[in-house]
Amino acid sequence: NTKFNEEFTLIKQLGRGADGVVYMCRHKFDGQVYAVKQIHVRKDLESVMKEARTLSTLAHANIVKYHTSWWEEQPGGGCVVYIQMQYCTSSLKDMLEDPKALIPVAAFNELVQAVEYLHEKKIIHRDIAPKNIFFDDYNRLKLGDFGLAKKKLSLPREGGKVGTGMYSSPKQLENEMASDIFSLGMILFELNCRFSPENQDRDSTMQLAKDGIFPKEWEIANQELAEKIRSMLHPNRSLRPTASQILASLP
Ligand code: ATP
Ligand code: MG
Ligand code: MG
């Protein structure tokens, strides 16, 4: 029998993504509830392992807590990777879709703190979106899904050997961090301009917001905020603020 079946009692399926299924399970030994992500390895194990390897290096109050990971060979061939992590009760996507949901006031601040921590470690998340932002029982924000995250190795000091593709220039790193900042800008806009699920304008409003065009009445009522969001969405990446600068500007 497999470690997954032996050690966990399945409670229910929590979600399904492009590359995996996430289950809510109880660990038979410690009695706690966890989210266990099961990823079927199609091509190379190395790229799937990367998600676990990245998450395992992170310890921050606003990042989904990693417990362990392992892989299992399947009877029919192929293999499955499991990542055992902290169970989160809801996602920002669920909250944004529920007009009655109260989104914690600290949420954005906590999200930027998670991103500041990642960027300090030269890690780019690359998939910051409401569906990958979670909340625990205490309504603390937890950034998750490191399936697309990348750790940048910076250029070694003079004299060091430079491999191809291995290292990136500081400029390149800044450039990629700026994509995470763009996502933060879109989330800050959505948090402050909530749509009801039946609002068909949502998609077109979000599409226009990407170019820094916000609904007129909203813009008039939120001038300062609109400018702040626009700076995060700036078409010139190098002019976008860093996570630390955003934090310093928050009330
Ligand atoms: P996608 O590529 O669509 O973002 P994915 O395959 O990368 O998905 P995840 O985003 O990690 O997988 O998880 C898929 C879904 O499982 C999430 O959208 C969410 O509903 C649920 N989920 C993931 N992690 C947790 C968690 N720690 N606690 C509770 N639910 C979770
Ligand atoms: Mg996801
Ligand atoms: Mg993913």
What does this structure look like?
There is one protein chain. This protein has 251 residues and is of the alpha+beta class. The chain is 37% helix and 23% strand. The protein contains nine helices and twelve strands. It has helices at residues 3-7, 45-56, 92-97, 107-120, 170-192, 201-209, 216-221, 223-232, 243-249, and strands spanning 8-16, 20-27, 33-41, 66-73, 79-86, 90-91, 123-124, 133-135, 141-143, 150-151, 153-154, 167-168. The strands form four sheets. It has a five-stranded antiparallel β-sheet with strand order 1-2-3-5-4. Strand 2 (20-27) and strand 3 (33-41) form a beta hairpin. Helix 5 (170-192) runs antiparallel to helix 8 (223-232). The longest helix has 23 residues, at 170-192. The radius of gyration is 20 Å and the shape is globular. The mean pLDDT is 92. The structure holds adenosine-5'-triphosphate and magnesium ion (2 copies).
Q: Tell me, rounded to a whole number, the average pLDDT.
A: 92
What is the terminal separation in angstroms? 54 Å
Helical content, roughly?
Answer: 25-40%
Strand content range: 15-25%
Q: Name the structural class.
A: alpha+beta
Give the radius of gyration: 20 Å
What small molecules are bound in this structure? adenosine-5'-triphosphate, magnesium ion
Global morphology: globular
Low-confidence stretches at least 5 residues in length (pLDDT < 50)? none
Count every beta strand, where a strand is a DSSP E run of 2 or more residues. 12
Q: What is the H-and-E element order?
A: HEEEHEEEHHEEEEEEHHHHH
Note the main sheet. 5 strands, antiparallel
Number of helices: 9
Q: Give the spatial strand order of the biggest sheet.
A: 1-2-3-5-4
Keywords: ATP-binding, Kinase, Nucleotide-binding, Transferase
Protein name: Protein kinase domain-containing protein
GO molecular function: ATP binding; eukaryotic translation initiation factor 2alpha kinase activity; protein tyrosine kinase activity
